[in-house]
Design brief:
- By secondary structure, the chain is mainly alpha-helical.
- The protein contains 26 helices and 8 strands.
- The strands form 2 sheets. Strands 2-1-3-6-5-7 form a 6-stranded mixed β-sheet, sandwiched between helices. A two-stranded antiparallel sheet has the order 4-8.
- Helix 9 packs across helix 11 and helix 11 runs antiparallel to helix 16.
- The longest helix is centred in the middle third of the chain and has 29 residues.
- The two termini are 40 Å apart.
């Protein structure tokens, strides 16, 4: 139970106390600032504390937004504020320092406003909630109070709450084909006490059943798979809308939502490949290619956003042109659809699965995602080249973490540190050459499973070390992680495909899936402000250059018939390592109350 302290002149007949109790607050009353300070100090340290003016007039959902959102250490609207345990010390100090007596009436008449200003000066991360069309006011006269009550009655609070449950930025398919009814499903779940994590889990299970249906290889199975995939996406939208509707945000929920999205899509790719194999069509290479392309698209998104997260002087003519295009209604939807976000992509996959074959599904998906990748990457390169921005140490650290280089690259980079000019194009050029050396070798060599390829993998490791030797603060240094990801994933794909061994491509699919999970986990940790995975884990996983070297050695040292088993064992060992550490980290983060990061736009 959280505590709400009412401090100010009482108001007869106000529904405020009922609203606060409905939101889970235990109510205490203070007659003056001194008694309010005593109640604040006496409250248990682990409790959320709210301070509310009894004269407050507004919607219950306004209070819910201001007083119960777990994402903010402190939040406020007119007449109400709340602090979580992390900001309690600042509230205690602010409450005890309010003067009383002559000349202090302006500080105590609306005590919540004075405390809010004090918390803002204390820099505890206070968020001022914008109620929008909802009402939050502290009327000081009967006439003003009556006017505020009329304003409350004029707004359909439930309609506003349902609208705000939908993401502020979504794709066309999600906005027009899913959200008009999924928001009501979210409300239905809220009224029955379901949590977003339960809905997220239901979405995962539905997608896994869809993958199982696709794996049957029958037309009926494909039709069922397409329908279930769309149902899984409806539930995927519902879990976030339920979190926003009822403000049930959590660290664990943010991680599950992000992780399960990738698991659902890639498990479905595997199901399609299995179904095609039952029909005599081997599309594992296409399935693995689709997973690689989609993962590399995400790496481009994450790297670019981290590089420019806190850049100063962050402007460019390209960005200004983009803003002007967004001011024209139809171009907004066209530009959101052309990048093939998750809604459009899953709808495309579902329809093609039901109506065509897995091979057609993957071919269309690869073409569409490739065009989308070219469009988004080209735009970001233009923005980076025309933007005069100064990257921060934090951005450079994030890019280095996303590069995921191991002990071998560290050893190579050590003597190079401090040499060369930071901010040049050297880093992306070295990363590109590392990728090119590897891919040219495995694609064009007559026998890529040779010790010559191992030697070229060592050369690529040297280039990788050179790429990360200096802080990644250049205009195009955000391309370093995508280049390294593409080199690693595609090397595994081509070596498995060219081995010709039965089971090599499914084993390679499992290995890339395990590595991709490790990379996604690093992204979500960085976005959550927790930093990248520990260095011991990165070293134990080999780093990108180390894993490539291991795979090329296995290909050269083992017979084609033994290579698939080696890939499968490597995939299992690596997957177990990163999954156990990831679960341990996120469970601990949830227990310690680490802040959750919830995406408010539809990712690619």
């Amino acid at each position: 139970m959280s505590t709400a302290i009412l401090t100010g002149p009482p108001v007869a007949g106000s529904p405020l106390e009922g609203d606060l109790r409905a939101l889970g607050f235990d109510i205490r009353t203070a007659q003056d600032p001194a008694s309010a300070a005593e109640l604040i100090a006496a409250a248990p340290a682990h409790e959320r504390i709210a301070v509310v003016d009894p004269r407050f007039v507004g919607h219950r959902h306004t209070l819910r937004l201001a007083l119960t959102d777990p994402r903010f250490p402190a939040a406020a609207v007119d007449g109400a504020l709340t602090v979580q345990p992390a900001a309690r010390a600042a509230l205690d100090r602010a409450a005890t320092r309010i003067p009383v007596g002559a000349g202090s009436a302006h500080l105590t008449d609306v005590l919540t406003g004075t405390l809010t200003e004090a918390l803002e000066r204390a820099d505890v991360g206070l968020t001022r909630i914008e109620p929008g069309s909802l009402v939050a006011a502290v009327p000081l006269t009967p006439a003003a109070r009556e006017e505020a009550r009329e304003a409350v009655a004029a707004v359909d609070e439930e309609a506003v709450r349902l609208r705000s449950a939908v993401k502020s930025r979504d794709g066309f398919f999600t906005t027009h084909c899913i959200s008009p009814y999924s928001r009501y499903l979210a409300r239905w779940c809220a009224r029955r006490g379901l949590t977003p994590n339960q809905v997220t889990t239901a979405s995962l299970l539905t997608a896994l059943i869809a993958a199982g249906c696709a794996a049957t290889g029958t037309r009926g199975g494909f039709i069922a798979a397409g329908v279930l995939l769309l149902l899984s996406f409806v539930l995927d939208c519902t879990d976030g809308q339920l979190a926003r509707y009822s403000l049930q945000y959590s660290t664990m929920g943010a991680w599950l939502d992000a992780t399960f999205d990738r698991a659902k899509e890639y498990a479905y790719y595997a199901g399609l490949a299995l179904g095609a194999a039952r029909g005599g069509d081997d599309v594992w290479a296409l399935a693995l290619g689709a997973m690689i392309l989609q993962t590399c698209r995400h790496v481009v998104d994450f790297s670019f956003n981290e590089a420019n997260h806190d850049a100063t002087a962050n402007t460019s003519p390209t960005a200004a042109l983009s803003d002007r295009l967004d001011s024209v209604g139809w171009t907004v939807w066209a530009r959101r659809m052309i990048v093939l976000p998750i809604g459009e992509r899953w709808a495309l996959i579902a329809v093609l699965t039901a109506c065509t074959t897995p091979r057609i599904v993957f071919c269309v998906l690869l073409i569409g995602c490739a065009l989308a990748a070219c469009y988004t990457t080209a735009g970001r390169v233009l923005r980076s080249l025309t933007r005069r921005a100064r990257r921060t140490d934090r951005a450079a650290r994030a890019l280095a973490d996303l590069a995921d280089t191991g002990a071998l690259a560290e050893l190579i980079a050590r003597p190079m540190r401090g040499r060369g000019r930071t901010g040049s194009f050297l880093a992306p050029v070295m990363a590109f050459l590392a990728a090119a050396v590897l891919l040219v070798a495995v694609v064009f060599e007559d026998d890529p499973a040779s010790w010559r390829t191992v030697g070229l993998a060592c050369c690529a490791a040297l280039l990788t070390g050179a790429a990360v030797a200096r802080p990644l603060k250049g205009a195009l240094d955000w391309l370093v992680p995508p280049f390294l990801r593409a080199a690693e994933y595609l090397t595994i794909l081509v070596l498995a495909a060219r081995s010709g061994a039965h089971g090599a491509l499914p084993a390679a699919f499992g290995l890339v899936a395990a590595v991709a999970y490790h990379h996604y986990d690093a992204v979500y940790r960085i976005r959550g402000g927790s930093g990248a995975p520990p260095r011991w884990l990165v070293r134990a996983a080999g780093g990108s250059e180390g894993r490539v070297l291991v795979v090329t050695v296995l290909a050269a040292a083992l017979s084609p018939s033994d290579f698939p088993l080696a890939l499968a064992v490597l995939a299992g060992a690596l997957g177990l390592l990163v999954l156990v550490e990831s679960i341990r980290f996120w469970v601990r983060a949830a227990k310690t109350g680490a802040p959750a990061v919830h995406d408010e736009g539809e990712p690619a």
